[in-house]
Amino acid sequence: MFRTAVLLILSCFINNLFSQSNTLIGTITDSDQTPIELASVVLLNPKDSTVVTYSITDSKGFFQLTASKRETLLFQASSLGFKPFYKKIYLQSKHIDLKTIVLQDDVSTLDAVMISAVVPIQIKKDTIAFNTNSFKVNHDDTIEKLLGKLPGVEIDSDGKVVAQGEEVQRIFVNGKEFFGGDPAIVLKNLSADAISKVEVIDKKSDETELTGIDDGNKEVIINFTLKKNRQNQGFGKLSGGIGSDKRYFGNVNFNQFNPKTQVSVIGKFNNINITGSNIKGFLENASGLDDESSEESMTATKPKSFSGFLTTGVTGVHYGHEFKKKESVNADYFFNHTNNYGLSNTNRLTFSNTSNFDFKALNDFNNTSNNHNLNFNYENKSNSKYSLKITGGLIADMRDNFIDSKGKYFNEDGNLATTNDYILNTKNDRSTGRINTQFYRRLQKKGRSFNAGISANISDRSYFNTQKSIRTSNIGSPNEREREQFTLRDEYFKTDKINLLFTYTEPLIVKHFLKISGTAVHILDQEHAKQLRTDITRDNEETFSYNFFHNERRYSTKFLHNYVSKKWFLSYGAEIQDINRTFGENNHKDIVRNQYYTNPLAMLQYKPKRGIKYRLNYQRQIKSPRTPQITTVVNDLNPYNIRTGNPNLKNEKLDVLTFNTNIHDFKSALSFYANIQYRCIQNTIISNVTIDDDFVRTRTYDNAGDTQNLKANLSLSKKINKLNIRYTLKNKTLFSTSKALVNLKLNDVETQDYWFSFQLENSNKSILDIKAGASLSLNHTNFSLDDDLDRKYTKQQYFASFDCQVSNKLNFNTQFDYITFTDNTFTEIQKLPLLNAAVSYAFSKNNNILKLVLIDIFNKNVDIYRRSTVNYFEETVTESLGRYAILSYSYRLNNNKRRK
């Protein structure tokens, strides 16, 4: 089956790759013979007006189109303010020159709806708009799949949306926020076929929009415009499915979008490891296997994911209302319930400078989470002289975590030396409240303005922990002994943070501005704990309690000189910073730290023309130690993994230099993005690890000189018109140096991480959507403790996907991934082939869909994760869903027939 699937995909891809191509060229002008730049030119299928290929004109009005079929197509040229031009073209195996095409003025000017109906791509100022009818989507696709088909837009491995090389911060629907603008919720819960237009907007800051003076701050947002027949009436979808091995899912969403009011309801439940949302922090500590040592990791760790078996329930409600133009309020509530359980095997090689040992553990985990999330915002930009924005939210999170771990320690000779079995139950309740107010005011003189803001964040966390452990040491020797302990620990953490901001901008001479800003930040961390430990073996009890606080006040003033022109933006200056920290235990003498800093900062940006941007940024940052790093309290909840702090730690000083390049040319279909960052850290805070003969691990922290790292992310994507394909090359590179003290010996660690990716896909996706490629991850980690420990880790992934629209009603798609893990630390080479397939049939005029999905056809029900830290290598293999099939049905609510 595997060979057949791969050969089918490759044969279709090669056939599409080497189809004979034909080229069409010409020039577009207005009636005065002036070239029209950024005019849209497109070849359409005369039968159904679907797009075959498209491009835009350059500054001289020139265009070039390439198609692989020898047939009659409809040529269309259009631009805002002009009447569209149409001409039937018969493509042959030769170049066709249409010479000069003159577009006539359109007095009435097409409105936005008409433009969306005929123009596949439209470019104006800071906005790029895509007509969704030009991009093939399946009947049941969400807009997440739609975005993946747009040029210059992608969804990376972390689920982040990246447009033109920059992360998308917020997503709007009909120009209004939807579920707090959280991209993950929007992308996973709206149908692609409800969208008529997608706009990628390079949005200026609120201050720039009010004053008209660029302050160098922008964010990329995406706005989805609903189809006309989906507005002013309710629409949505019901879907459900049942499958083998008692698998099931159910989804419902309903939306009512009126000009003034928007209401949406979302509901999901399933046991097929799909969360359906990605609220920030929702995936933290999902597996229950984190030992809080991830901060020591020398390699880029993957995001937490749900391995094992997961049951999910999700409910969400959004309400938005516009009081008048540019004045609106939005609120949403989201509830998540998850139950995640399973088994995992951990294999760890630890080096301690005196001896090395292996640790193996079998972990049985079962975690439950109930998360309530309420967000709201009020925005008023109706007055041309000022604007006001208020945002806030409430979060309540209740978690119950259980882990039963059976661990074994093996000495250098491979003999079992110690066993450590423990059962840990944790009840964790967290609540957070936040509010932020921003006020911008434009003053009388052009360019003169000020803004003031205040934000407050209050967070409470409580932990109730019970742990029972049985540890047997010196197995097989006359000194063999067993110790059984029971620990009960009640912990409470509270963080209060208040931030005040004031900024004033004064115009100097033409294009020059003085900007003065001041901030005051107050952070108060409080910790309270009570612990009772019963040594069952020795029949005694120990009680322990503490109250610890960390109070930090930061005052800073920035003086900046800004130069602003059409192509250049220059900003430079200095920040004067005063950091006061007071911390310690109650009933003990307070520890006080006061420091003053002068931090230079500068930014240079050059935009020679549309679609090209270069940015160089330098900043010095001061990073205070975190509360767990300076605490004077010993945390021995796990008596064999003890953590404490160092109250004498100094602040870290970071010098960060970043260079960004964004090049996006629609005419040549070229996209190139680069992000290069160099960081030098003084007074680096490092881990100080000691491991005794009983394998008890104690960790604290120290300052250890300078460390540095260099990180580079590159991406190149180009369409080859003659072959009708697009290739994408990506590279991520990380060079870093770090240090750690292991049993009082300094361990210098050098890390090199490389990631390469290559992908090919066809350009014309009206019937077939084919992708194939490979990625390679390399990690080289060198340790000064022992050269024999130097690690080389390789991950190879090969993938191919095939999506065929067999007819207007029938769709078939499949995806194959083959992953191998090679590591000189672990002798076994892990191989993981994954094959999924789906076939769907839309059997009614409303596109109600019957769908059969086959998951993990080869039944490789595992998840593999490897990492390096300052003193150990680790591999975790977690069981997950294996092969299953699920049959589902989707029903559209108020799905009007499409307009021709």
Q: What general form does the structure show?
A: globular
What's the oligomerization state?
A: single chain
Give me the CATH superfamily of the domain at 22-124: Immunoglobulins
Determine the mean pLDDT. Answer: 83
Q: End-to-end span in angstroms?
A: 41 Å
Signal peptide: 1-19
Protein name: Outer membrane protein beta-barrel domain-containing protein
Keywords: Signal
Organism: Allotamlana fucoidanivorans
Overview of the molecule:
With 900 residues, the protein is mainly beta. The chain has a domain at 22-124: Immunoglobulins (Immunoglobulin-like, Sandwich), CATH 2.60.40.10. It has six helices and 46 strands. The strands form four sheets. The protein has a 26-stranded antiparallel barrel. Strands 8, 9, 10, 11, 12, 13, 14 and 15 form an eight-stranded mixed sheet that branches. The longest helix is centred in the N-terminal third of the chain and has 16 residues, at 2-17.
Short description:
This protein has 900 residues and is mainly β. The protein contains six helices and 46 strands.
Descriptors for this entry?
single chain; 900 residues; mainly beta; Immunoglobulin-like; 26-stranded antiparallel barrel; eight-stranded mixed β-sheet; 63% strand; globular; disordered N terminus; CarboxyPept-like_regulatory; OMP_b-brl_3
List the helices and strands and how they pair.
Layout: H1 2-17, E1 22-29, E2 40-44, E3 51-56, E4 62-67, E5 72-78, E6 85-90, E7 96-102, H2 112-118, E8 121-124, E9 127-131, H3 143-147, E10 153-155, E11 161-163, E12 166-173, E13 176-177, H4 183-189, E14 195-204, H5 206-211, E15 218-226, E16 234-243, E17 248-257, E18 261-270, E19 309-324, E20 327-351, E21 356-380, E22 386-410, E23 416-442, E24 449-473, E25 481-507, E26 512-535, E27 540-564, E28 568-585, E29 591-606, E30 612-623, H6 627-630, E31 641-643, E32 652-665, E33 670-682, E34 685-691, E35 697-703, E36 707-720, E37 725-742, E38 745-762, E39 768-783, E40 791-805, E41 810-823, E42 830-842, E43 849-855, E44 862-868, E45 872-879, E46 884-893
Parallel strand pairs: 1-7, 12-15, 31-35, 34-37
Antiparallel strand pairs: 1-4, 2-3, 2-5, 5-6, 8-9, 9-14, 10-11, 11-12, 12-13, 14-15, 16-17, 16-46, 17-18, 18-19, 19-20, 20-21, 20-45, 21-22, 22-23, 23-24, 24-25, 25-26, 26-27, 27-28, 28-29, 29-30, 30-32, 32-33, 33-36, 34-35, 36-37, 37-38, 38-39, 39-40, 40-41, 41-42, 42-43, 43-46, 44-45
Organism: Allotamlana fucoidanivorans
Protein name: Outer membrane protein beta-barrel domain-containing protein
InterPro entries: CarboxyPept-like_regulatory, OMP_b-brl_3
